[in-house]
Amino acid sequence: xxxxxxxxxxxxxxxxxxxxxxxxxxxxxxxxxxxxxxxxxxxxxxxxxxxxxxxxxxxxxxxxxxxxxxxxxxxxxxxxxxxxxxxxxxxxxxxxxxxxxxxxxxxxxxxxxxxxxxxxxxxxxxxxxxxxxxxxxxxxxxxxxxxxxxxxxxxxxxxxxxxxxxxxxxxxxxxxxxxxxxxxxxxxxxxxxxxxxxxxxxxxxxxxxx
Length: 210
Fold this sequence. Notes:
Blueprint: E1 7-17, E2 35-39, E3 46-47, E4 50-51, E5 57-66, E6 70-79, H1 82-102, H2 106-127, H3 133-142, H4 152-161, H5 168-186
Antiparallel strand pairs: 1-2, 1-5, 3-4, 5-6
Helix pairs in contact: 1-2, 1-3, 4-5
């Protein structure tokens, strides 16, 4: 499940005619000429031994293979400079490394990496920015889905349901605290945004214990 180092490169929107074996441009069923995008193969993207400053835009791509989920690709284009593209690439690498820090097995690391990749793609598609690293880190440490965007209120209910060893009196006290204090004030906050005074979501590791 090795993650590629990633790459930055330029692409453009130039097109070229689709030619048949006879060298004549191919037409579709409606009689319209067919064209293909040159993408990264456009000769105008290069100037001497380097990239052209005036043609095309910068793109970033990182990929890895997961045993369960298959090939994963993270990409973004339309960036205005190589500096911006390389900064984005570094950010993607840093986010994916969170899986290596918190996964206890190759399978778990792979699953976390796929979730992080899904979250990165979703945020890039919706806002054009990477997810906040601290938010992703808190979600991983809390053991919650990075794509479901769980609310604190729902997590607290699940947390209490998972504490199967509580006495009846202790459970009633916990239910009262959740119902009267925690959920009314914190329930509508995304769990990943919740910041604790002593290390954020470390307490969530206790969620499955009685």
